[in-house]
Amino acid sequence: MKHKGLQVVIPGRREGARSLTLDNPVIAASGTFGSGREYGEYLDLNQLGGIAVKGLTPEPREGNPLPRIVETPMGMLNSIGLQNPGLEGFIKEEMPFLRTYETAVIANISGNTVAEFTAMATRLESVPGIHGLEVNVSCPNIHRGGEVFATNPEMVQTITEEVVKVTTLPVIVKLSPNVTDIGLIAQSAEAGGADAVSLINTVLGMAIDIKTRQPVLKRVMGGLSGPAVKPIALRQVWQVYQAVKIPIIGMGGIMTAEDALEFLMAGAAAVSVGTGNFVNPTACIDVAEGINAYMEKHGLHRVSELTGAAHKQ
Amino acid sequence: MKREYTGNIMYQEQLLEDCYRMVLKTDADLLQQALPGQFVHLRINPLGGPLLRRPFSIHSIDQEQGTLSLLYAVVGQGTRIMAADLPGKTVTLLGPLGTGFPHLPASTGEVVLVGGGLGTAPLLHTASWLQAAGRKTRVILGFPSQDRAMLASDFTQIGATVHITTEDGSEGYHGYPTSLLHKVLLRESVQAVFACGPHAMLENVAKVCGEAGIDAWISMEEKMACGIGACLGCVVRIRDEMGSHYEKACLDGPVFKASEVIFDET
């Protein structure tokens, strides 16, 4: 879906920085869409607002042992463990395919040290067809006893500052919901120079098999996603909208256009569909069409007219 | 472009206390493409929960009636809803998905199908396919006991040779299906073995066939989310020259060459 009214522009804040233009406000969420090949058989990838590709790490990762997923009430837990072909593998195997589409490609990067984040950002700077970086700070920091970067405001600011130094690509910092004050973390990303924040990543959870009396997931804890997390995600988008000026990409349990409209009204400039893709392979396009229909019905000219609407009385 | 299909529940047959066969009317497109060992990804309740789709092997296809059937046991929320579903309800389907049993080169040897319990599900469609291709098909169906045995007549009807095995000896061969398979491999000229069932049985199929030098393919059941290769939830560990790697049960499988599967994690 594309027309002027649906377009979302995330401006680059630094001198010389590129901006990110999405044809519509719906991005396929990282980790749920691979590099688009599989879903490309069910929909025209050119009709998406953007694709946030499966999380990348400097080296290939095999991922976690099974079981990796379990369904929960209107949600699912996953502990895939960032299975991916590594940054170079992705550039070689997936980018030639993605470059055949016009849709904005957002590289989602994960590191265990600040240096790993900057090395990946540096490498991606020169890769044609990459339109933006999404920095996944929900990783353990191996220099700090495995503390998750996302929970520490100084670390989030440091990673953001270091990444924006080495790239002209728009930088989106993806926030974890597993924090006490997400507004504070979003402010750290903003202070570090992020062009946007995306939220929420998955909510930490677990399940136990009462037959074996053991955790279901091999790695015990996993990330909860799906409609079950939507109210949490919406509340955090609301809070972040009040805390920062930079654009928000909202996500968490979006299955329908109605869900997406709530996120826009809570303060999101754009949204992502994640687990919804697993249930409905054309969910991203269905959501974009539904937003468009809502705009037409209510005489709205720009999707930005909806952003933060619920904050205005 | 691939798409989602709708399925209309025509009727259900209760085969055992907790085991059902659901017959769905669906699109001719889907039916014509379906290869043996492939599956459909069913959204049981398009208007509500459970959230995720459920993968079911294609149990049988009736092109004339425009129907396919699924075999399932009531094990959780999704299958409890299915068991209570009445004719006329609409579900949605993705499929046919995955890589099924291979197309074998011409041979006079027979193809032996081994099913453990509900693992029999994909074998009926597979047996029909083999029979239609003029292949001699032998089926070994393993159950705990006579009161859990089912489906033998479905296989004899299409002309396959059928053996029932029970763990307690209450019907047919007394023992596991794999111990009967071992005897069959010693006595008959067998080209290949196709199997589906519990992982312990499949591991034994791999062992028995490996020792006999017979090619075997097994259908692996794993928990799935997307069903099309994107989520990486359903991987299977596969042997290679460098050691091993993960493949996707939904896309590269569910059928794998038995000698390549590493069972440690399953």
Written overview of the protein:
- The complex is a heterodimer of chains A (313) and B (266).
- Chain A is of the alpha/beta class.
- Helices cover 29% and strands 21% of the residues of chain A.
- Chain A contains 9 helices and 18 strands.
- The mean pLDDT of chain A is 96.
- With 266 residues, chain B is α/β, with parallel strands linked by helices.
- Chain B has 6 helices and 16 strands.
- Chain B folds into 2 domains: 5-97, Elongation Factor Tu (Ef-tu), domain 3, CATH 2.40.30.10; 110-260, 3-Layer(aba) Sandwich (Rossmann fold).
- The two termini of chain B are 34 Å apart.
- The model of chain B has no long low-confidence stretch (mean pLDDT 96).
- Chain B has a 7-stranded antiparallel sheet.
- Classes of the chains: A alpha/beta (313), B alpha/beta (266).
- Chain A binds chain B through residues 31-34, 37-39, 41-44, 54, 62-63, 65-71, 73-76, 78, 80, 83, 218, 226-227, 275, 277-282, and chain B through 1-4, 43, 49-53, 94, 222-235, 245-246, 251, 265-266.
Write the layout of secondary structure elements.
The complex is a heterodimer of chains A (313) and B (266).
Chain A: E1 8-10, E2 20-22, E3 26-28, E4 50-52, E5 69-72, E6 75-78, H1 86-93, H2 95-98, E7 104-110, H3 114-125, E8 132-136, E9 140-141, E10 147-148, H4 153-166, E11 171-174, H5 182-191, E12 196-199, E13 203-206, E14 208-209, E15 214-215, E16 221-225, H6 230-243, E17 248-251, H7 257-266, E18 270-273, H8 275-279, H9 283-297
Parallel strand pairs in A: 3-4, 3-18, 4-7, 7-8, 8-11, 11-12, 12-17, 17-18
Antiparallel strand pairs in A: 1-2, 5-6, 6-16, 9-10, 13-16, 14-15
Chain B: E1 5-16, E2 19-25, H1 28-33, E3 39-43, E4 54-57, E5 60-62, E6 67-73, H2 77-84, E7 90-97, E8 110-116, H3 121-132, E9 137-143, H4 152-157, E10 161-166, E11 173-174, H5 177-187, E12 190-196, H6 199-212, E13 215-219, E14 235-240, E15 243-248, E16 255-257
Parallel strand pairs in B: 8-9, 8-12, 9-10, 10-11, 12-13
Antiparallel strand pairs in B: 1-2, 1-7, 2-6, 3-4, 3-7, 5-6, 13-16, 14-15
